[in-house]
Amino acid sequence: MSGKITATCLCGAVRISCGEPAGAGGYCHCEDCRKSTGSAFGVNIPFEASEFRIISGEIRSFTKTADSGNELTRHFCPNCGSPLFGTSPQHPGRIYVRAGIIDQPSLVRPASQTWCESKVEWSTIDPRLPSYPEGRP
Length: 137
Ligand SMILES: [Zn+2]
Ligand SMILES: [Zn+2]
Fold this sequence. Notes:
- Helices cover 5% and strands 32% of the residues.
- By secondary structure, it is mainly beta.
- It has a single domain (6-118), classed as Beta Complex (Metal Binding Protein, Guanine Nucleotide Exchange Factor, Chain A), CATH 2.170.150.70.
- It has a seven-stranded mixed beta sheet.
- Strand 6 (60-65) and strand 7 (71-76) form a beta hairpin.
- Residues 9-11, 13-14, 77, 79-80, 82 line the site of one zinc ion.
């Protein structure tokens, strides 16, 4: 994934310049991702925090201690409710953008899946991807 990557929420109020990806990202089957996305799993792409810029829009956030024991803050658009990105004091240099808000979806290539022990039966991901029962080791 390279080039100029931007992201927008459903209503368009929040516009983000994502900067440089810090990896391919992956699927997350944890219950918190399921609840916060309203879907079967989350798809999160890491970006370098130093290049990540919010261009416009107000953002609200919700912080919860995840199953991993790490504190995770989920940021969202207060107008339309779109999940935007996650941050954690555990990884201060990274911003985990929700793949669905990226304006260049063809660039997204999730390369692993985590928290498979929480995976629902109604989601099927390519079984050849590296898969972890919990977070990435
Ligand atoms: Zn919005
Ligand atoms: Zn998750």
